[in-house]
Amino acid sequence: MSQTPVVQSFIHEPTSTFSYVVWDPDSLQAAVIDAVLDYEEHAGRTGTQSADRIIEFVRSQGLTVQWVLETHAHADHLAGGGYIHRQLGGTLAIGQGIRQVQEHFKSVYNVDRGFLADGSQFQHLFEDFETFRVGGIEARAIPTPGHTSDSLSYHIGDAVFVGDSLFMPDGGTARCDFPGGSARILYRSIKRLYELPEETRMFVLHDYRPGGREYRCETTVGEQRRNNIHVRDETTEDEFVEVRDGRDRTLDLPRLIIPSVQVNMRGGEMPPAEDNGVSYIKVPVNYEQGFTRNA
User: Fold this and answer.
1) pLDDT tens digits, one per residue of 268-280
2) Of 25, 56, 111, 265, which has the highest C-beta tally within 10 A?
3) Looking at the DSSP assignment, which residues form a beta bridge with residue 7?
4) What strands, in cross-sheet order, belong to the sheet with 29-33?
5) pLDDT at residue number 116
């Protein structure tokens, strides 16, 4: 049985986010990774056009969705995993570190008393290095915290999906100044990924097109080890921490962090509707310290 999954990427240009459909060509069992909901922030309106493209593709290929996977509780886009799960089935899953994210942000947003910071909004919480399958293809959940405390990479056959831990080699790495983030921890997580075979295909979550080039989402472990502008084989931990922490001090908060986190920590669902039947996104005023360690 093949251990080489087929991978189809989908770009959400407003947030420079890649989603993936990954499947076993023998069984046609599939995983959907990091789907996106559309969101018009000026109107407070969500949309499913981007997620519907994925659903249409899955159905056109005759695939059965076994897993709906999130690499972490994203801070720059609304997760579409909950919507994908409702439409196509499969097990909605994330890493067990989501509990720490929920515990922190439930106080930031002063969420409803019925909200439980126990990960129960997802159907499965992966433990570190837990193994699973996509059809007949062996897979593993690799803990890669540092960007966030719940960050997870999915190693499926000869491919690894790294979320925000790494960008393309000319883009470097993700920020580490969110609550629970750490440049030192991210360095160690990246070194863990670099232990995979050099030929392992690596798929990133975001590409911000350095220099205005075309979008790219696929590289290899070997290419990252040789050419990543922040972490190459010869880069020491202290060197990386100095560069990463220095850059993080210059960054603004992501444009969609306020709606994204409070939706994504709920498995991609909106907060419960209030007594008028309307769901509301809260905006903490003058409370930036809840979102970044540098505030």
Assistant:
1) 999 999 999 999 9
2) 265
3) 22
4) 6-12, 17-23, 29-33, 64-69, 91-95, 124-126
5) 93
Q: Is the dihedral of CA 144, 251, 12, 283 positive or negative?
A: positive
Superfamily of domain 7-265 in the CATH hierarchy: Ribonuclease Z/Hydroxyacylglutathione hydrolase-like (3.60.15.10)
> 122 and 92 in contact (C-beta within 8 Å)?
yes
The structure tokens listed for 120 are: 């129960």
Phi and psi for 102 in degrees, rounded to 5? -65, -40
Structure confidence by residue, pLDDT tens digits, 98-115: 999 999 999 899 998 889
Distance CA 152, CA 199 (A): 20
124-140 CB burial, b ≥16 within 10 A, e <16: bbbeeebebbbbebebe
Q: What is the maximum alpha-carbon separation in the chain?
A: 59
Q: Residue 10 pairs with which residues in a beta bridge?
A: 19
Residue type present at position 12: H
The sheet that has 36-40: what strands, in order across it?
Answer: 45-47, 36-40, 78-79
Query: Mean pLDDT throughout 192-202?
Result: 98
With tokens 């509301």, the residue in question is 280
The chain-wide mean pLDDT, for the chain, equals 95
Angle between helices 81-88 and 49-60 (to 10 degrees): 40
Residues 6+ apart with CB under 8 A from 63: 21, 23, 28, 29, 30
CA dihedral for 69, 73, 79, 84, sign (positive or negative): positive
Reported as a single tens digit per residue, the pLDDT across 49-103 is 999 999 999 999 999 999 999 999 999 999 999 999 999 999 999 999 999 999 9
